[in-house]
Amino acid sequence: MNKKILLLLCFLIIFVTLIFGKNKISYRNEIEIKNYYNSNIINLSESQLTEFLNSENQEKYHIKTADDFITSLRYEFRIKHSFPFGHTQIDKLIFKRSIYYNNEIKDNSYFGAEIRQYFSRNFNITFKYFYYPKIYVNHYESVLDEDNYHEFSYSKNYYNSILRWKISNNVRLDYQFKFSQFFHNGYFTEYDANCFESVIGSKIISTENSKLYFRYSYKISKAQAEKAFENLAEIDEIKDPSYESNIYYFSFSTPINLKIFSSPLKFSSNVEFEERFYQSNQALEIDPYHFGRNDKIFEVESFLKCSLSGIKLKLFYKYKTRKTSSAAGNFVEEDKEYSKYEIGFTIEKKFNF
Question: Which domains occur in the chain, in start order?
């Protein structure tokens, strides 16, 4: 569905709610400011980082620094009502903008909408849509022009539907179906892809209000590859970045009672591990970066949250690494493996009216 039509539909639903759903309507604004440091903003491998820091191959790199400080502003407008089914519905409009202090080429934003419909206290369905106008990745050589480096960037449609069922006071089951569309700039249309992800999860709440959450996802990303070109005879190399992956996720959170704070602190940590298997059917010499390649992506993140005078403060640290094995050998592994970390804080304030 065209993103403009979808957003218009979301706005129409919210407008109808405002006109006809006059019983027990509440509105809320939410603003979140996030400030953090990213140690590797375009996921450079160790060899690429050395090349960049030594000012080698300068036409390839269009960033000013490999790391950066980022500030993002997220705004959310929420409407809560009981139209049209007589049960609680929560509608949201969301916008986020991220600014990089030294590398404006990485600045990005997204906007979208969310509708959550409750059918009982224990069962609800959520629909989300977000549009990302431009996400910059790096500069690469293109199969259309192998003598120069060109910007590799894309826009993205993201759809998500979620079913949540609270089967007891301590256990909740979730199922999600995610669908994403990636549209790259003209030099890299073979990377255009449709991505399907099926997710099942469970949250367990203990008597001490500690929480455990488990999630498993199976993802399929199908790229355009040779279908992106009208005349294959003019293309020497066909790249097919299609892949399938298994994703395992675990999180834990617990309150921490300290006398110096009026409300308890909350500590949480999550771990995600993805096994990604590339599906290129091209010959090894034609598509060495995708044929016979497997990635293992590991991410861990920890938070410390507290509330002070109606303001929520969160401190966080995140570490991410990718390990690659390839039938093409060491040069692919050296180019694709990377690690990075982020550290920072967020401030969140809600305004009811």
Answer: 3-352 (2.40.160.40)
